[in-house]
Sequence to fold (406 residues):
Amino acid sequence: MLTKLTMERSVGMKQPSLKIFIGTLALAMVFAVCKKPDSSLGDGKSKDTSLSAVVVFSVGDSKIAHADGTEEKAKLGVAVKTGDRIETGTNGKVDLQFESGSSIRIAPSTVLDFAKLSMNSDGGSDSKLSLASGKVFADVKKARKTDGFSVVTPTAIAGVRGTSFIVNADGKTGKSTVRVLEGAVATSPRIPALDNLSQEQIDADSNLKKLRESLQNVEVVVDAGKETSIDAKTPAMKEATLESLDIQGLTSGIEKNRPVLRESNITKSEEQELKTIVKVDEKVVQDMVALNQKANNSDSEEKLAEVERKKKEIEEMLATKQEEKKKAFETSIAQKPKELAKNKDIVSYYERIEKIVLADGKTEIVGAIINQEDNMMIVHTEQGIKKIKLDDIDVVIYDYQTKTKF
Fold:
């Protein structure tokens, strides 16, 4: 597999804290589910290496299709395992927490397969998610050195460790975009036909070896505040079989379409999603799972009512916690504002801009209104944060970006 290949070739090399391998598979949305590693105990019994992620927050319409063929609503306390799939509706949003301490938020209109949730041979967790389409916000924590976390899309393999980032997969165009808020990312194209080959198999074929070296040569490092994306600009990159590979065409295409770094277009709303992903301690997670199991196994209306009451208490606690996070985020962007030197940058980040006309009829202030507090309006302008007394304001023109070209 390419993941194995890339990990093996990185031994002994200085690596950034995060690795992402962007690819170009646009034909199929089918992902190979990696087998769970087998480990044997001294008594000959097979050790259970399966792990799970738990739904810790859910709003709107979303469903979980389990590997055993059953389906259920994505609700508090549901455990997700290898082979399961989550589909969020147009108003759905789901937060999951992994045993390693990492967390993700699945955005609306997203299809996410859990290709692998298991313990690796070194005792660390190994999580591989397949993002068929949509968007995932991830806050990955490095609990152990051997922990692995990756997100696979129709055009990307993202090997992640200790960072905050967003992966977006366009189901129509096959284009994948990775935006990094914190950490660093090593990015290179992916050839689907190489996925199931070992390093030894590639080394044994001079053409495949040359192709792999081309992938390595165009690798770029994406730092925090940057982003990159790759789509299937070279038709030959879509081929998923070795027999159909055009090595020369692929090598040329890779060189011509190497990943390009650019300033990140992470918006305020996206950053807020990352900052407000629900995280709970292990005891609460265990309580969630136990309550969900009781609800599924109980026929007593009285017991079910008690379970629902306790679940509602947890949901309300988490909702309150999330609101507190939102308020803290709003305060932080006013206290430590981003450097947005031009109005077009303000529009890009806030996805809007306002024009404020003061009561003197002469003074006009253009910027994004962040908040209102203590009879003051807080506005992010080209000159930084400005505080304006509400009594001094005559008119506020909202959606000013639709009336003016920036």
